[in-house]
Hints:
Largest sheet: 2 strands, antiparallel
Order of helices and strands: HEEHHHH
Low-confidence stretches: 176-200, 206-217
Structural class: mainly alpha
Strand order of the largest sheet: 1-2
Number of helices: 5
Shape: rod-shaped
Strand content: 5-15%
Amino acid sequence: MPRVTVLEADVARARGLAEQARARPNPSINVYAENFAGDLDRNARNQQQTTFQIDQPIELGGKRSARIAAGEAGIVAAQARNRDGRLVYATELARAYAGAEIADRRIAIAEDEVEEATDDLKVARALVGAGKEARLRQVQAETELNTLQADLENARALKTAALARLSALAGITTPSPACRNHSWIGSTPSRRSAPSTLCRRRWCALQKPNGTPQRER
């Protein structure tokens, strides 16, 4: 789940900055060397001078405590953003599941209507062939069937778009067969196929603060 990963990375970054804020400034060591060749005018070649300097910054005025407090506040803010982001993501994921479920049911309804229209067309052709109905009856049945077939194709296209959105939110490149047959939402397991383990874990991962999927039962 890319979005959850980004939220967790933001919290980890805030914790790293807070840890760094607790560290004290590092000391520095400097070495200076002078008169490498000595004093040639006075023929004093042993007057080389080497100076070692150690600097240790000392923070005054509560600078370190203020820096630590700012780091802790950064962690709190990152955790708040994490919670808000998870809630928004969970809402969008639930809507995506619902949209995919609705699209799946629309396909089922459209398929039933196409089947009924096909039967009506067969009856109309039989009646027209027997001379019991005018040609107009068959034309009307054919028009109705073509319209319902177009609605069925549109419903299938909407389902493809809904699955693509669901896959993008869940971080799945290609939905598994169980995810495609996602009509388990809001239905009993005895009548609907259960979702795949991967699909369930995408959802369960949002229910724990640390993003760890819950154990499946």
